[in-house]
Amino acid sequence: MTSSSFDPSIIASKTMSAEAAAELIPAGAHVGMSGFTGAGYPKLVPGALAARIKKLHAAGEEFRIGLWTGASTASELDGVLAAADGISMRLPYQSDPTVRKQINAGQMQYTDIHLSHVAQLAWFGFLGKLDVAVVEVAGVRPDGKLIPSTSIGNNKTWLQLADKIILEVNSLQNPGLEGMHDIYYGTRLPPERQPIPLVSAGDRIGAPYLECDWSKVVAVINTHQPDRNSAFAAPDENSQRIANHILDFLNNEVKQGRLPKELLPLQSGVGNIANAVLSGLNKGPFENMTSYTEVLQDGMLEMLKSGKLSMASATALSLSPTALKEFNDNIAFYRERIVLRPQEVSNHPELIRRLGVIAMNAMIEADIYGNVNSTHIMGTSVMNGIGGSGDFARNAYLSFFMTPSTAKDGAISCIVPMVSHTDHTEHDVEIIVTEQGLADLRGLSPTQRARRVIEKCAHPDFKPALQDYFERSLASKGGKHTPHLLTEALSWHQRFVDTGTMHVR
After folding, report:
1. What is the C-alpha separation between 61 and 318, in angstroms, rounded?
2. Are the CB atoms for 100 and 94 separated by under 8 Å?
3. Helices (H) and strands (E) in the chain, counts
4. In sequence order, which residues have a C-beta less than 8 Å from that of residue 443 and are 6 or more positions away?
5. Secondary structure letter of residue 498 according to DSSP
6. What are phi and psi of 425, to 5 degrees?
7. Smaller CB count within 10 Å for the chain: N or C?
8. Which residues form the catalytic set?
9. Residue 154 in contact with residue 119, Cβ under 8 Å?
10. β 406-407/372-373 pair status
11. Under a CB-based contact definition with an 8 Å cutoff, are residues 163 and 129 in contact?
12. In 370-477, which ranges are E strands?
């Protein structure tokens, strides 16, 4: 049943409890759920499904699902299903402690995917058949079209591909969200693909609503539940110093004529360092800036409010409770300045390169040659996932990676001889920033990069050891282009695993 033939009375016939809806999800199903950074995820069906799974397990029956989302969600989704041992495989990104623990214990499979790739891999059929979509929406229009919630993520794709659809209609979401979204239905599979007609961050190229085939809808659940809105800690001294290094760099790029005075569209990962950078930009000299990013967080909302940022494009909101109140109280203002898109568009490599995005993302560690690990602790234990950082890093006009120079109260150096896991190679990393300084690596050879990273970014407690490693590598019998001592390259990580510190005792 298409929207053109939609009978609104059908909603009542499909309305049921979350528990009844959970009964419609079969064991072994691939389930695509809405949600991106704690916004717009289904609030009741996952918990009801988890309760059902626990009962089945207690009765000796096997029941697990494959869980696909946009990105991370919340404990009411990932957490409860993982606690019930209900997830066999997770993709493409997660941040839940229970999920992480099970992945690292080998109890749950995890496929870590660039966020721009998820929808197309599903369409290609590489991920298998999508059995069920569970999607939160803010409302249903009289014509059957869906008003999206606070995130879009992969919802368009889930609704199109799933055999069965379960909708959660969340009346707590602000009705003023209607009109903020831009759902582009023009993507095609090769060889029929055409250029996506977007040339500036604020362009609207699609429709404000999600299409829904109501013949596939098997359940409608009414909810009135908030998103996971977490407060951000105030930027600490290290975050502020990292932010200041980036702001100084951008100012100089404008002076050198390599950036326009309004900069280029900004992309920023989520977290305290990112918010410190955005706060600095809000107080700085740049006017009429724009953003083309995945997630709109507190710092960008403040920039929109002040007028420093004229337009922000994202796929989801990630706001603290205070910022959410500001957003809801003034949603008419923000609706004219925010565009929420599917993540296959917000993270699209061609668009990122076309727009000349300035990408700023966090990392766990970098090595002296500029390779970056953004996903793994000590090489084997996943933290969250690559998310969209790879989409932006390889295609950005400028690609920053940021971290404090040490972790674990100084026991770990975040600048190491060789990263224990590589997510972003030296070819995709242009600028590394710690509180110690900023290393501009553009145009440098590997040995030049190593000298600059050690000089600018390493903590003084580890700088002599890094310098010693590099000089001995350079003097060794191996190649001189990217010199390493292979028996020592990962010894810093092994030392931490064995002794609890990277320092030589």
Report:
1. 38
2. yes
3. 18, 25
4. none
5. H
6. -75, 165
7. C
8. 294
9. yes
10. unpaired
11. yes
12. 372-373, 376-377, 381-382, 398-402, 406-407, 412-413, 415-416, 431-434, 437-440
